[in-house]
Amino acid sequence: MLQYSAVMGVVAVGCSPFPAATSPPVETTATTVEESTTSSDPSVTSSSTVERSVLSVQTDETATETGSPTGPTFDEGAPWPQDALSLAGELSDVEQLIRQPVAATTAREDLAPLGRRQQLLYRLLDDNAAWADEVLANVDPDVADAVALNWKARSALSALVQSEGVHQTLPAWNIIEPEAPDRLISLYKAAEVDSGVPWTYLAAINLVETRMGRITGVSTAGAIGPMQFLPTTWAECCQGDPTDPADAIPGAATYLVVRGGPDDMAKAVRGYNNSGYYVDAVTAFSDVLAADEQAYLAYHAWEVNFLSTAGLLHLPVGYRQEAEVDATEWLADNPDQLLFDNS
């Protein structure tokens, strides 16, 4: 069985990490945590009765002349929603902008800030689960399915976390930049051609296991690589280097076929991780991707958070520990990385 129990910290649960008086540190894929993209117009107008968010579409001079936006952007330091209706409004805006066509040459940088915001908005909903029914009832209908599926995935992973407990130490990981999204999608799709396993499942597993390969190091179960293989499992089913996505992704497809895919993907995913919550989460993410491939560009920006006794901590690109480290001591040296205080 493949297992990456330490990734439970990536999808951790708890009370709200966003105090009313302050905004949380914005998650980024850069080693400088405060880097952000700022919109020239911090408001969005809508005929909807739902309170809208601070998101906006920004255009450059050329785009203004053609009427085609260069891509979505917004103020990453904007206040966080404080109630269900405002959260429904911002989730609607984020999910709609993620799906807005953008030029291929700018899609990654345009959608990465939205992906980071998206990740934390579902975190906020998880921490205010009593809002869920009202949020789901008030999101815009054209993204209602995506919101419901992302919420299902988040809820499932949170339930999985609750059964795993909280760590006093941070893991011996390196957090690195992932492979480019177009590179990874090409690997997923090539593996689908060879195996019949839908590429969307491979992407969803890559997201859940290592945030698209951001996490390098050995899990608490001894699994390695972007798709988290136990060395013994890899030796039985696959060839090449399990730490190289060019081998690991088709290897994961091969393993899923052995476990029942593509005919029964629920069975196959359970063979990857024997948890119904895990199956629900992977399936929900896969369904989002099957409905709109561009959603992958936002997921690709999701970052690494780890639940510890010191709180929910953001582990940025550049985090590097050769051995486990006490979470409280690490936080004392990195106070800006606290997203949620357990105290």
Q: What can you see in these coordinates?
A:
The chain is mainly alpha-helical and 343 residues long. Helix content is 44%, strand content 8%. The strands form four sheets. The chain has a three-stranded antiparallel beta sheet with strand order 6-7-9, with no helix packed on it. The longest helix has 21 residues, at 107-127.
Mean pLDDT across all residues, rounded? 80
Output the strand order for the largest sheet.
6-7-9
* Uncertain spans: 1-72
Question: What is the succession of H and E elements?
Answer: EHEHHHHEEHHEHHHHHEEEHE
The structure class reads mainly alpha
**Strand runs, count:** 9
Distance between the terminal alpha carbons, to the nearest Å? Answer: 35 Å
Coarse morphology: globular
Task: Provide a compact summary of the structure.
By secondary structure, the chain is mostly helical. It has helices at 61-66, 84-98, 107-127, 132-138, 144-162, 181-195, 199-210, 231-237, 245-258, 265-272, 276-291, 295-299, 327-333, and strands spanning 55-58, 71-74, 169-170, 174-175, 215-216, 304-308, 311-315, 325-326, 338-340. The protein is globular and about 50 Å long.
Topology:
Layout: E1 55-58, H1 61-66, E2 71-74, H2 84-98, H3 107-127, H4 132-138, H5 144-162, E3 169-170, E4 174-175, H6 181-195, H7 199-210, E5 215-216, H8 231-237, H9 245-258, H10 265-272, H11 276-291, H12 295-299, E6 304-308, E7 311-315, E8 325-326, H13 327-333, E9 338-340
Helix pairs in contact: 2-3, 2-4, 3-5, 5-11, 6-7, 6-9, 7-11, 9-10, 10-11
